[in-house]
Amino acid sequence: MSSLGAEWSLVPNLNEVFITKAAAFRGIVSALKTRGIFDKVLLQVPEEVRGYMVSPPMAISKMPAVVFQYVLRGIGAVGGVEMVRAVAVDSLLSGMLKTMQPLVEGMLRLFGAEPGAFYRKLPQIMENQLTGITFSTQEPGPGIAEITITYEYLRNVPLECFVYWEGLFSVTWRICSVVGQATTELLADAHHNKGRVLISWQR
Fold first, then answer.
1. Residues 23-53 pLDDT 10s
2. 55 assigned to some structural domain
């Protein structure tokens, strides 16, 4: 039986419940190769994770989501959180965004070209992509959003795993033609599996 993710897992059957479609992972692998750091990151991850990196599953296939934790931590070791953020943006623009284009266009028609519309719909957007991560969005004021991310089945989640989401969220600024900024913070709780992305934007 695989021990993949044991260092983070809160449950015995992690890789049966914490799963994701592989489209986003393929985007990360592509971005790492484009940036010329694939081999460096490969050296930072366990052998089982290397297998996923060298031969990523098909985009619609499901895979253990904890593989992302290892790869994102490896990217951080190679280039810091700035590199994690950049790879996240690259991975979405080069791959996943293309497959989500109909959804993006539909949301723009329904809710207008505002990032807040996307952030409010995150649970619905992500429910068919992965299980085991929950998103909660608050909007303290116009042009401001606070998104809390919880890794339900993990503990001691690295900062890189929250910065990754920050990078993905920032792509909405480009889609909506706004200027935005964001910061990410870890939240103190019993399992250290929560983080918050603080976002603001203006035209």
1. 899 999 999 999 999 999 999 999 999 999 9
2. yes
| Residue 109 covered by a domain | yes
Domain containing residue 22: CATH number = 3.90.1520.10
Alpha-carbon distance of 38 to 19, in angstroms, equals 23
Q: Which residues span the domain enclosing 135? A: 14-202
pLDDT digits (tens, 9 = 90+) for 107-133: 655 656 788 988 988 888 888 889 999
Q: Is residue 8 part of a domain?
A: no
- DSSP string of the chain? ---TTTTTBSSTTHHHHSEEETHHHHHHHHHHHHTT-HHHHHTTS-HHHHHHHHSPPPTTSEEETHHHHHHHHHHHHHHHHHHHHHHHHHHIIIIIHHHTHHHHHHHHHHH-S-HHHHHHTHHHHHTTTBSSEEEEEE--STTEEEEEEEETTBSS--THHHHHHHHHHHHHHHHHT-EEEEEEEEE--TT--EEEEEEEEE-
User: For residue 3, is it within any domain?
Assistant: no
Cα distance between residue 152 and residue 76, in whole Å: 22
Return the bridge partners of 64, or none: 19
